[in-house]
C-alpha cells in the first residue's frame, strides 16, 4: 500500500486526485491551511477516508512536519494562488505561495527523505505569449502574468532539484482543465453558473471580458490521472497534458447558452473590468509525449464538458436553499 501527500487537497484537482488515489488503495494525506471557517466542500464526501494535516506553503516547518508525519512515497504539489487576475493584485503573495512554496516543499523532501517522488503542478500559462502553435515540452516560455512568472520559477526549481540532488521530480505542464468543482471565478464556471442562474430566472446578464481568448480546455478528472502516471515511470520527466483542441471564450458561451435553449447575444455584456493587463491569446497543447510514454489520453471533449458543467449548476440551483456555494447535491 502506497502513501501520498497532497498540497491543495481542498482545491479542484486535489479533490479529484485524492478520490482517484483512494480508489487505487493509497493512504492519502492532505495539507490544509488554517481557516476561520471550513472550506472542505470539495472533499466532504471523502473526508473520513483522508488524513488532513494542518500546514501552509508559506511555513517551512509545517511542511517538514507534514512529510515526517505522513511518511509518503509520493508528494503532489497542487497548492497555489491559482487565479491569474489576482496575481496582478497580489504579485508578492503569489510568488510566495506559487514559486517559493515549491522550494520550501522540495527542501522538506530533501531533508526528510530523498526517495520521495514529487509532482509539480506546472501550467500552460508559462507559454504565455506563445512562441509556436501548438506548444510542447520544447516550446520556449514567455509568461504574461505574475502567476505565470511564479509558475516558471517553480518549474525550473523542480528541474533543478532533479538535476542537483537526483530527486525523482516531475512537472506536469497542464493546460486548462475544468469540472463542476471549478472555482466560481474561472471563466468556464462563471459561464455555467450564470447560464444556470439565467435559465432559473435568478439573473438576466453575464458580464465577461475577452471573448476572443482561446484555450485548450480539458476535464480535470482526466488530468489528475496523468499526474499519477508521471510518478509511476522509471525516469522522471516533464510532460505536456492537453486535449489538442482550442476553443474561444465566445464558443464556450455559445455552447453553454444553446444547451439551455437561449441565445447568448441576449445576455452577454462585455465589461472592460474583466479584461487583463496582458492577455494570453491562444493556447493549444501537443501532448504526444504523454500519449506515447504514459499511454494517457483525455476522455471528455469540450462540448460534453461545458454541458456537464451547465447541467450540474442547474441541478444545484434547483435545491431550495441554493447559494453560489451549494455543493449539497451528488458530487460529480
Ligand atoms: P484551486 O482549485 O485554486 O486549488 C488551489 C489549492 O491550493 C487549494 O486547495 C488551496 O487551499 C491551496 N492553497 C493555496 N494557497 C496555499 C498555501 N499557502 N498553502 C497551502 N495550500 C494552499 O486550483 P486547481 O485548479 O485545483 O489547480 C491545482 C494546481 O494546478 C494549482 O497549483 C494550479 O496553479 C495548477 N494548475 C491548474 C490548472 C487548471 O486549469 N486547473 C492548469 C495548470 C496548472 P484553500 O482551499 O485553503 O484555498
Ligand atoms: O481564463 C478569458 C481570460 O480565468 C481563461 C487557471 O487554472 O488555467 C487557468 O488560468 C480565459 C482568459 O483561466 C473572463 O481573459 C474572458 O483568456 O478561466 P480563466 P486562465 O487564466 O487561463 C491555467 C492553465 C492555470 O494554470 C491557472 O491556474 O478566459 N476571460 N472573460 C475571462 N476569464 C475570467 N476568469 N473571467 C471572465 O469574465
Automatic annotation (TrEMBL):
<comment type="similarity">
    <text>Belongs to the NAD(P)-dependent epimerase/dehydratase family. GDP-mannose 4,6-dehydratase subfamily.</text>
</comment>
<dbReference type="GO" id="GO:0070401">
    <property type="term" value="F:NADP+ binding"/>
</dbReference>
<dbReference type="InterPro" id="IPR006368">
    <property type="entry name" value="GDP_Man_deHydtase"/>
</dbReference>
<keyword id="KW-0521">NADP</keyword>
<feature type="domain" description="NAD(P)-binding">
    <location>
        <begin position="5"/>
        <end position="309"/>
    </location>
</feature>
<dbReference type="GO" id="GO:0008446">
    <property type="term" value="F:GDP-mannose 4,6-dehydratase activity"/>
</dbReference>
<keyword id="KW-0456">Lyase</keyword>
<dbReference type="InterPro" id="IPR036291">
    <property type="entry name" value="NAD(P)-bd_dom_sf"/>
</dbReference>
<dbReference type="GO" id="GO:0042351">
    <property type="term" value="P:'de novo' GDP-L-fucose biosynthetic process"/>
</dbReference>
<comment type="function">
    <text>Catalyzes the conversion of GDP-D-mannose to GDP-4-dehydro-6-deoxy-D-mannose.</text>
</comment>
<dbReference type="InterPro" id="IPR016040">
    <property type="entry name" value="NAD(P)-bd_dom"/>
</dbReference>
<protein>
    <recommendedName>
        <fullName>GDP-mannose 4,6-dehydratase</fullName>
        <ecNumber>4.2.1.47</ecNumber>
    </recommendedName>
</protein>
<dbReference type="Pfam" id="PF16363">
    <property type="entry name" value="GDP_Man_Dehyd"/>
</dbReference>
